[in-house]
Amino acid sequence: MAYLRLKTLHLIPVFFLVTFASFMMLDLLPGDTVDAILSDADTGEIGSMEAREALRKELNLDKPLIVRYALWLGNMVQGDLGRSYVTTQPVTEALVQRIPVSLELMIMSQILAIAMAIPIGIYSGYHGGSTVDRGISAFAFGVLSIPVFVAGTVYIWIFAIELGWLPSSGHTDFSEDPWGNIKGFILPALTLATIEFPILMRVLRVDVISTLQEDYIALAKSKGMTTWYILFHHALRPSSFTFVTLLGLQIGQLITGTVVIETLFSIPGVGKLLIDSVDTRDEIMVQGVITFIAIVYVVVNLLVDLLYAVLDPRVARRA
Amino acid sequence: MASETSASPLLEVVDLYTHFDTPRGVAHAVDGVSFRLERGRTLGIVGESGSGKSVLSRTIIDILAKDGSVLNQGEVRFEGRDLMALPEKDMRDIRGREIAMVFQDPMSSLNPVKKIGKQITEVLVKRLGMPGAEAKRRAVELIESVGIPDAAQQLDRFPMHLSGGMRQRVAIAIALAGEPKLLIADEPTTALDVTIQAQILDLLRRQQAERNMAVILITHDLGIVAQYTDDVAVMYAGQIVESCSTEELIRRPRMPYTEALMNSAPNLADPPHTRLDAIPGLPPNLLRVPRGCRFAERCPYAAEKCSAEMPALTDDDDPSHIYACWYPLEVKEAVSA
Lengths: 319, 337
Hints:
The complex is a heterodimer. Chain A is mainly α.
């Protein structure tokens, strides 16, 4: 429990740093939010001085940066991230709509990536240095160098256009059509998993190789355990530290990394929301999304830290 | 002494070679080793670090890597069956059930992320086919029998909760779980506190007597050999250089290396600050073993012939005492040593 408290305390300064930095950077961006809201693209009108001043006051844009941050923070802790300048939709409401979509994509892609990385990583580690191992490594590096949009496009071409098994884009609500919903996620999830699993596989492979040198593996062998049992029951857990760390970082990244995928496959997730909000200079929405991403990052890494203690009881004791 | 007449010893190793194919050349870790071990007896294998003792034990139980870097030759006959010729599946049935092993360092030989109970019961469940509940009961008995208090509570603890001596007791309990006929103990007390050493070795001896189990006790400590073994084989640079009953070895060593080992052990009767006789030089590089006697370079008695020609194992009149030396120690001289 002391371990948990310590880890949680570490996260508080991180959170303040991220939210304040993003607040400041948005403020430094060229252009004026008031212009963005009031100007009419067709007529070129920018609104009357009175309207502009009123809006500026309403949005607290007349106050110094630090005061605005404090006001925003005060509202944030009460769960109010403000309203979109553009659509007037509350930011939290927009997030609540988008989060399940991104979450489903993330979970599916992580399951696929883990399902590929663990068996291949263990196999490769067990046969470390063999021809098969080297073949797998070469393949992994090849896959690693493919940009995400290329992988996505190739999958669309194969599975959606040539074979016609899966939709190339779009999103169906789970409540309307569960199977249609899942089908829509398969290609984007597979794309993300494809570019992610090589690194996961590689770190697991290295750790498996070093774990297999341990005396307790020799002991397990001398007990007459099967190779399969030794690999999965004796070697996997002690070999999974780097793997889990990386997984945590990737999950954090995926929340934003899905921006490209969500755009490519027209999936209305958090990444798409962020891109659209940047397009329309919807600063308060951008700030909200960034805050959400920061929270996810921080929480996921806390979970990873806690997972260490589960994976190896010695970690909890050391802290 | 009667051993060579009995029909089938428990273990008979015949001309065993284990070489490692390394990028720098072939390492002759075990180079033509032969010995036999009867049921219920204890054989001490003694030698310096790097003499091939551990590799020999791992070759017998066949747990060295199978990636092509290990080259084996020879026979390991266990109850008449050649283990070297067994397919992996049959060999797995031997490990744990017939031959078990205790490793040197209990800090690293127990899986740090598995509960102690699980590490014992997996032998019982996977190898003896015991149901889970029965295996747990049996594990408690085993933990009790190796002298760990509060046996039932230990099942849910991790190795980190135990001291080195307690961990080695757990390792012994694991080895005993499959009720093996042969236990290989690879320097079981080297990593432990001196005060714990005798406890662990006494425990091994008690268990051995109760179960009529044979033991191969690998050590670098002749004191342990003298106290705990029936027979002894002295290993040097991958070869057995002298082998006989323990009593005989202590009384009448013939090989100068054995003598050197004896002289390099501290003696309680010596006055304080007596200089220890360390053996000068280093064991030969196993990648480039010399043509002649491998000990010649460090031997105080070495002559020209020694580095030119390798002495074969031979005996005088007693075939149970064999040694490999061109100029064996005089019996008289050895008695005073």
